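We emphasize that the prediction below concerns an isolated chain of 779 residues; any contacts that depend on oligomerization or on bound cofactors are therefore not represented. The input was used exactly as deposited, without trimming of termini.
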Amino acid sequence: MLAYSLVPIAMSLMPGPGPIDLSRAVIVVRGDGAPEVERTAAQVLSEEVELRSGLRWPGVTAWPAQGWTIALVAGPDRALHGRIRPIDAPDVADAYAIHAEPQTATLWVVGHDPRGALFGVGRLLRRLECRKGKVLLPEPLSLRTAPAYPIRGHQLGYRATANSYDAWKPEQYDRYIRELTFFGTNAIENIPLQDERPIISRVPRETMNVEISRICGRYGLDHWLWTPIEFDLTDVARRAEWLAYHRKLFRDLPHLAGVFVPGGDPGSNDPEQVLPCLVDLWDALKQSHPEARIWMSMQGFNRFQEDYVYRWIEENRPAWLAGLVGGPSSAPLHVVRARLPKGYKLRDYPDITHCVRAQFPVPYWDPAFAFTLGREPVNPRPSFYADIHHDTAMFTDGFITYSDGVHDDLNKCVWSALGWDPKGDLRTVVTEYARVFLGADVAEDAAAGLFALERNWIGSLIDNGTVDGTYALWQRLQREHSDLRDSWRAQMYALRAAYDLYTRKRLIHERDLELRANAALLDAPTSGSEQAVARAREILDAPPIEQNLAREVTALCDALYRSIGLQTSVAKYGAIGAERGATLDFLDYPLNNRWWLEDEMARALTLSTEGERVGRLGQIARWEDPGPGGFYDDIGNVGRSPHEIRHERLERPILDMDHMALPGAMWWVGKHEHARARQSWITSMDWPKGLRYAGLDPNADYTVRTTGYGDCFVRANGVRLTPTLYGKELGAVKEFPVPRGLYTDGMLTITFDPTFEPDLNWRVQSRLCEVWLIRTSNR
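Result of the prediction step, given as a token string:
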């Protein structure tokens, strides 16, 4: 663990009458002689209070004769216009103190440095209860606090990949960066070069690169760049061009603290080429920003490449290298920390923006959400990310998160707040978020609604009645507080609540349609194959339900594009791709096997004889049926895998989710050859801990049947099984007879030996989709 520790927070309620009325307060400042960031802090306080209450707190340079005063100051000078401040901030960068003196009607906000004053203002704004014409501090307070971690930032890359940032003007960047400081954010990372596809905004990237740097300077924040090497470094001309671009970029930027070059993801160069290139990059950087430093990740490196990096750092001890960055496709943070030579820092690069096919997927996410909400929906996950931070931050010097849009807004604020105080109460953080951004009157209820949105994603969607209550809560808040309709944050959370409920109702309805369609196919021996297929198609073609909810979702998506540039559709709003937040495009994605049934029914009708057609239709309808005394599990589907051994709440500590046994969902859409596959083949696992069965008949024979892709090595109560059928294509069946005598007590545990496929891309590695335990006969 690093030497960084939380400066003890001494927080106590002052004796007094209770709430302090600050409606007519003024802000006493040092004036023009104060540093720019200190003056900015006073401006932020005045403007944000006016935005929320309509009351303007003027800034003055003399003590008023009466009324409450906000005394805002930073630095070592203890006197402010002749008055000695009663409290000092801790002697740590970014620290601050807030102290109410009822006897002098003064509220002191004291920064250790100018940026500390800004963070003190943010903390005060989180505590204030602002209403039209009224500003209250609920209780007189006194606190001294300093951050536990020196790096607390977020990536806000202005590029086409983002689902909202690329629609912004500088003014929107300024406001969003300002609001992140309320929770202690001290670093912003831009992406100046990568991804040359068209963006939404008319502001050129070269212009915005400079503007983001200037904004960071105004608020005293550390400005970082994320700049990958996506070409072959042995290409001398491309290498020289890349370095020349950065040399000019560094000259253009007024502020720059760090340059992060990922070793991979994207990029595939060997570290033997990357490190010398970074030496040359430093030569360009130091000419314009000699105090800035370079960082590098080992994303995608194998263990031999990692060994090379550690040796190179130890042997060369470069002063220009601040440290390494951990993140997706990297070794676990505790492993990097243990091997990183002393004197170098470790920054985390956690993915807080994605829900599936990601570093931190939603554990056992219902496939209905994976198919519709996809990879980048509105995703408040405060409890989950608090767990991740608590389990991993201790190995680091802080973080700059990976974010591709505003959809993860709450996650950013949670990470920033916990980066300041890892022991802080999470519910307090979320309530303060709701208070400062949604309003004092809704703070408690909105905080409950944010936690409820996270709970919507726990367990089987069909069985999760929380979804209905969450929608009702957000509906009530919007109905009772009409001003929320203009808040993009409230719009986001109302959208998620409506989308979740619509998806749940559709899932229940469409699952029933599939059961009825299968029943119609089973009637083929009586009705004939063509009539059975016609009836099944008629059932599957039932009109859509809950169209009022669908219209509500569509309207909120439109409002969000207008209010914050959130691109929820490729066609309507210019989202760069279906995976990049285009949830509206998948609002009506089938939640049953309709497409597979339609294709298989059409193929069945082409068979030569009626007997063959009827037989195939029966196979289609009974696909999941394990027969009498048998069992079926849709692996990776939390609601349809009752025998799978799993722990839906992850075991702590959570140190390496990349290697945890968690289900996932492939991304097969559009014209992909598997786009119309059975949905149980789209979700999969590699590999579950096992499946457990009880109550088997010791006098019966059983066979394990599986579908998936590639190889599958099965054990029954520890005994490796020999297949009699071994299809390896997607959806092909494998069968493994279970030897007699393994389940004399009626108990059977099926486990899977992992496959070793280090040279295969994860998309074509072996995986498991479905498991049957079929009772084949009595002895």
